[in-house]
Each structure stands twice: as C-alpha cells, then as structure tokens.
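Shipment paperwork, digital attachment
Item: protein structure file
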Amino acid sequence: MPVLLRVGPDDLLRCRFAVSPVFETHEAVRTLRRADRHGYHLPWLRQLGGAAAGLDLEPLWIFMPGDRPGYTPDFLGGPPRGAYTSPEEGIARLRATDPGLARAEMEMSFATIPGAGESALGRELLADPAAAVQRLADLTERAWHTLVEPYWPRLRELLEAEIAYRARQLAAGGLAGLFAGLHERLSYADGTLTVRTRDQQLMERELGGEGLLLMPSAFVWPDVVSGFQPPWQPTVIYPARGVGGLWVRDAAPEAARTLERLLGAGRARVLAALAEPASTSALATRLELAPSSVSAHLKVLRAAGLLSARRARHEVLYERTPLGMALVGGVVA
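Attachment content:
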C-alpha cells in the first residue's frame, strides 16, 4: 500500500539530501537477515566472512521483521540534521535518546511484529528503556566498526556521487523530474508524493512546512522506504544508482575475453558498460554503437535474466541483475 506525503510550497523549498552512516549501518544489519536483499551485496557478505558472527545482533533484529513489513524505531537512525552526520555524532545522538520516546517507538515496532513484545528480549528492552537505548547504541557502534567502517570510503563515494547526479537532475528538470527518476515506486502529482512500500496499510502525512529529506542508500536496495514519524523530519530512503557495481572491480582481461566468447562482443560490451543504470541512447553514445544495435543487445540480455528495466519518465533504464553482475566476473575490490 502507498504512503502519501502531502507536499506544500514551503516543503518544496526545504527539500534536501543527506547521508547517514548510522542509518546505513542499520540497513547493513537488516541485509544480513534478509536473503532477498543479498543480491548485489554477496561479495560484501563473502568479504565479511565470520566477522559478523561475533556480533549479537538480536537486540537490533527484533525490530527488523525479516521478510515481513513492519516498523523499525526511528530513534535508531534518526535523520541527519545536516547534509552529513558523522558516525560518532550519529551514535552520540542515539545514546541521547529520551527513554520515553524510545519506549513509545519500541512499543509501536512490537505492535507490527507478532510475538516480539512478549518475548523475553522484548520484555527486557521495554522494562528499562534507558538501558535499552545504551545497549542498542553499543551494538550499533560495534556493527558500524565491523560491517560498514572498513568499506565506508567506497560507500560514501557512491552516495555522494548519487547526490551530485540528482542535483544535476534537479537543475535540468525541476522537482517533478527529480521525483520521477528516483525510483520506480515513487511518483509525484498534484502536491502529493506517493511512495509504494511493502506495508499493508495506507498512510498519509501532511508535511506542514517541515520539508522532505531524501537519503540515498546502498543497503536499502531493492526497497524504497518512507521513514520517520513525528517528531522526526519526513524522509524517503531509496537505492543509490550504481549499487550494482559497488563491490566489484573491472573484469580481468581473461575474464573479459571469456565473456565475449560467451555472449558475443557487442552484448559483452553492453553488459560491462552497465555499472550503473543507463538508457539505450546513453549506452549507444557511450559505446559508439547504433541505438538499434544496442536495443537488440539489451533485449537479449534482459531475456536471459542478466538485466532488469524500469521506466523513469520518458526513458527506460537498464541495469545488471545480480546474475548479470556475477557473469561480468567481478571480485571484491
């Protein structure tokens, strides 16, 4: 069911982007639990090896209902106040959460996850919300150092490149064009931003001049999320472009030759060129091929399950599937 965000003129003036290492940390924790989100992140999981096994993630996972929709407490990764909040600042902010707010949000979360509030861990967290906040902050800090910090330069580069791209898109097409291109499950019309999420109930929110925060994420893929209830700023979290090439190097020369023998030179070049989503015309320009040839290659690659396609306003954007990524022959950098 959709989330309907009613956007007024003042909200449009306060639309901004931000990056949050703490939010990415929690999404990385969620990725470990949800097999349907592994896809592009399998090389990262292999690189982690047994490191994640040393983390007792249950106090965080209890708020992350696996493959079921549900509400995760907003205080765990509240939206950044500026364009970037360092991990140290974000974790300090988490530690400073008011216990009353923490308890209220934990209860809201447990109401969406059958059995969580009645479990031994759930009762323990609710019985002493001040202690729960510190416990969750400690675990978040350990998860940051183990799961995300070693890869943060690469992740931050991806997220900041995404924001720079969207800034150019905003300059070229205005906010309507920006919203249309963010994600296939986002649309904007008549002052309403519609976010089609996995949740089963319709939600509506008047932004009322608070503005809208847009946060690109590597680990939220393949979802788009409308997050943060009052008192937090309304936020939409969406997958950053280029996540398909995040964990891979360019294929080695021998791997590239093998790919050409398997697919043919033209299709291999098209598949290799899709480190980030692109349209037929953009690929044709980049590869100096006729658009008709590129279109034919894309059709075959998509039929083979190596590419997916989505519409962004007047264009169709193609990107590699996890299978396509694996076939390119990338390895963890």
